[in-house]
Amino acid sequence: MKKLFFTLLVLVSFVSLSSCSSSDTAKKLDGTWLHQESEDGSEIEMTWTFNSADETAKLVCAAFNEGVKSCIVEVEASYTATPDELTLVFDKGPARAYVTDEAKEKFGMSESIAKQIADAMLQQIGDEYTGTNSEKIVKLTDSELVMEEAGSEVAFKKQ
Fold this sequence. Notes:
The chain is about 30% helix and about 50% strand. It has helices at about 1-20, 20-30, 100-105, 110-125, and strands spanning about 30-40, 40-50, 55-65, 70-80, 85-90, 95-100, 130-140, 145-150, 150-159. Strands 1-2-3-4-5-7-8-9 form an 8-stranded antiparallel barrel.
């Protein structure tokens, strides 16, 4: 009986050690992930960069108008990851937004108009990038990350 108990104990230990841990998921997330979408002639790029060494992440959202990268929103966070969930803590300062110099030139924008646009972008995202936010990880491979955000799936490709 003792021999059977010991064998079962060893098997349970082996199975628990071989399952995917949160640090394995964080390491798999390491690097830069890109999502692109377009609608009505405008394009949006969302880029997440994850660093498992210090569990930090940076999101850069860029809006393109008429082929010009126009407005950029950046936010940094700490994160933890399990095989099925990414938890982001936006504790690295407030989100930042700005209009690119190229857009200012192309569209003849003054600094005050550019600031108004950047402020409007920050207001539009509201509290989305403050506090703690959890996203369901639907799929994570070496080249693809699919998360569920606000009820829909968003796919990212590893860069």
